[in-house]
Amino acid sequence: MATNRKVRHKNMSEMNNLPVTEAYDESSIQVLEGLEAVRKRPGMYIGSTGERGLHHLVYEIVDNSIDEALAGYCDKILVELLDDGVVRVTDNGRGIPVGIHPQKNMPTVSVVFTILHAGGKFGGSGYKVSGGLHGVGASVVNALSLWLEVEVKDGKHIYHQRYEKGNIVDDLKVIGDTDKTGTTVTFKPDPTIFTDTTHYDYETLLTRLREQAFLNAGIRIVLKDERSDTETPDREDDLCFEGGIRSYVEYLLEKSKKDRLNNEVIYLSGEGKDSTAEIALLWSTGYDSKILSFANTIHTADGGTHESAFKTSLARVVNKYGRAFKFLKDNDNNLKGDDINEGLVAVVSVKLTDAQFESQTKAKLGNTAIGTLVNNIVADKMYQYLEDHPAEAKIILDKSIASSNAREAAQKARDLQRNKSGIGGKSRMPEKLTDCISNDPTKTEIFIVEGDSAGGSAVEGRNSTYQAILPLWGKMLNVEKARVDKVYGNDKLTPVIVALGTGIAENFDINKLRYDKVVIMADADVDGSHIRTLLLTFFFRYMPELIETGHIYLAQPPLYRISKGKQHFDAFTDEEKAVYIEKLGGNADVQRYKGLGEMNPEQLWETTLDPETRTMLRVTMADAALADETFSILMGEEVEPRRKFIEENAIYATDLDI
Ligand code: 1YM
After folding, report:
1. Which CATH architecture group holds 245-407?
2. Does domain 422-557+593-649 have CATH number 3.40.50.670?
3. CB distance 168 to 61 below 8 Å
4. H or E segment to which residue 351 belongs
5. Which atom of ligand 1 is nearest to the CA of 74?
6. What is the torsional sign of CA 33, 38, 40, 45?
7. Ligand 1 atom showing the smallest separation from residue 182 Cα
8. CB 68 near ligand 1, within 6 Å
9. Is the pLDDT of residue 648 over 60?
């Protein structure tokens, strides 16, 4: 930055608290070295010279306006995108002071833009907050701009100064009169530094500025696209949220497309020594949790003391309330953080002097005292909130307990699965399975048969090359009463899981399916319908792909055998029975099959197993919408709609496979 030698302000040369010196040349070199360092290693100061770094320049300038707003002197910030990669930021604050800086002996505004301040966001450990060190980023932006112009209105005059690559190119001049106050900074990022791109993305800026508007309630930030070659011509967003982080939580909820569980956003706040903390939270019907934390309006993507204090303390409070108000019984386990956080949407925002950022990305807050503050706020105020709002508290506890139940059931099923399958080698097959000889999964079939006696006949009557038989228990537990999580944890289903080989839920892998057709073979009576219901519910919830890909079938054993002499027909309905009787000339013999268990192996083969003569129904998913509805009904607390659904859909079978 050799051109800096032209700079005429001899005292601007003093930097980093060097004493004022007459040694103009030498000390001015040190100034130059200040901004030269920024140009040499821009990444150290703005994180990167890519798209992120480019956008960061805008945030640095806007930050100064926000500080002015937080100090109470400014209520509007305008950010304009201009042609040629130029950005203009205007605020209506007091204007950066133009008076001569007592130590540097030049206008303070020139100091702000040409002297690299210590204690900067990226240089040191601290960070400016209101009342602290202002404008630390301005000189960095200046250093990395091809040119930068500042205009200050002080209620009387309009001042102007221009810089190029960080160097002053002319003195601060009065260029007009005004009765207004404020600061305007216009700059063009240096394309030799930002070699990837110098194009500003409207959405990226909008997202960050919106975040700032949420975090600083009541400040109005306007973003305008005035570029002639832009894809979003004349686009303008006016961002002002009186509700602050409460509005932020509402916004996040809306974006998640989930419904709210709580009627209102819960807002907690408090102050400590040199710090403030505020928290807004709400539960949605979703399963994810979205917890955003900020320190001095910087997004702490890796969390830190404030965020972990919030989570721990929230879990403690919800458990304490749950016990005190008997949502949790004495011998119930505590609800886990993950259970409580399910569906949670929260924003934690702390402001503190001397913020310590940890981790590579400096996105993690390290100050321990702020953790204590957050912890105390949640412990006192959240508990108080729950006590004062029993209806909201019930919603939160019910949701957490439901999540806890589901999580425990899932864990149990996973453990079962793990125990049953040999590690590394082939899974040990269930004792009751009579497997087929072939292991060609495109040709084989497994019949899941109700009851041991029918199982025995099926084993004898089957084609042992391709047909495997798995008998299930005799008596079913009452599905109507069983919760779906019981279906999941149900020991009786374990042999099915192991025999199919696919695993379940997130471990499901269709490529491991050991049979082409999975046939549910149960009687047409109440017990049979229970078994069909249980299995279908189970497949639907934990192996839906099996249904989607058409692997699940319902065997259709006939109800009657109509015979005369050597001729016989099997009828599946009363109508069919009538037709066959007539066909055989009236006085035919009618045998009613009471159940699969009553058929001999030959009859079973002929009516139900033989691919040439049997009738089977393929189970299909009607469509995704129905599946979605099903999910909620099956998961629902309401027994009646669930029972009705299951009843109606146990005959969920449309394709005929003969
Ligand atoms: C578009 C960018 O920088 N606004 C801005 C900056 C300052 C002030 C007002 C300001 C601060 C103070 C007193 C103070 C800054 N001043 C300084 C410094 N907008 C923009 N608006 N008067 C005015 O902090 O006491 C640094 S930033 F150091 F000169 F006071």
Report:
1. 2-Layer Sandwich (3.30)
2. yes
3. no
4. strand 344-352
5. 21
6. positive
7. 21
8. yes
9. no
Q: DSSP for 79-107?
A: EEE-GGG-EEEEE-SS----SBPTTT-SB
Of all atoms in ligand 1, which is nearest to the CA of residue 101? 29
pLDDT in tens, 615-639: 888 887 763 335 345 444 554 555 5
Compute, in angstroms, the gap from residue 151 CA to the centroid of ligand 1.
12
Is 64's C-beta closer than 6 angstroms to any atom of ligand 1?
A: yes
Ligand 1 neighbour 76 (Cβ under 6 A): no
Span 141-194, pLDDT tens digits = 999 999 999 999 999 999 999 999 999 999 999 999 999 999 999 999 999 999
Predicted confidence (pLDDT) per residue in 313-339, tens digit: 999 999 999 999 999 998 899 999 999
Does the global pTM surpass 0.85?
Answer: no
For strands 616-619 and 552-555, give the pairing. Answer: antiparallel
- Superfamily of domain 9-239 in CATH is Histidine kinase-like ATPase, C-terminal domain (3.30.565.10)
Ligand 1 pocket mutation, candidates 183, 186, 212, criterion most atoms within 8 A of CB: 183
Token pair 């980093």: residue: 16
Residue 185 Cβ < 6 Å to ligand 1 = yes
Of residues 538 and 303, more confidence is placed in 303
Q: Cβ(183) to ligand 1 under 6 A?
A: yes
Give me the pLDDT at residue 593, please: 84
